Amino acid sequence: MSTPGSHDARPIEREGDSLAHDCPIVQDGGTSKWLAFDCPCRERHRVLINLDNRRHPSWVVTAAAPLTVSPSVDGTRAGRRCHYIIRA
Ligand SMILES: [Zn+2]
Fold first, then answer.
1. How far is the CA of 48 from the centre of ligand 1 (A)?
2. Is the peptide bond before 57 cis (omega within 30 degrees of 0)?
3. Ligand 1 centre from 38 Cα, in Å?
4. Scanning 28, 67, 83, 86, which has the fewest C-beta atoms within 10 Å of its C-beta?
5. pLDDT score of 6 more than 90
6. What is the pLDDT of residues 45-57, one digit of tens each?
7. 73, exposed or middle or buried, with CB in 10 Å at 0-12, 13-18, 19+?
């Protein structure tokens, strides 16, 4: 009914592969441009984060398998905040 803790960054625990099976990294000329994944919040909306450090804000994939992204993802959508860490 409520979503306590929705304003706190939290690691995504990936025991299985709930994210990993559907995390396409869009590349262009060998450079990673975007990472697309479904938000772990209950709305499961698609999130696109920029991996191109020439644009801001940008994120860095520090490990591809298991997927680790830095810094935390902090998105606002329709008045709700989705803030979490992608880390195995
Ligand atoms: Zn979300």
1. 11
2. yes
3. 8
4. 28
5. no
6. 888 899 999 999 9
7. buried
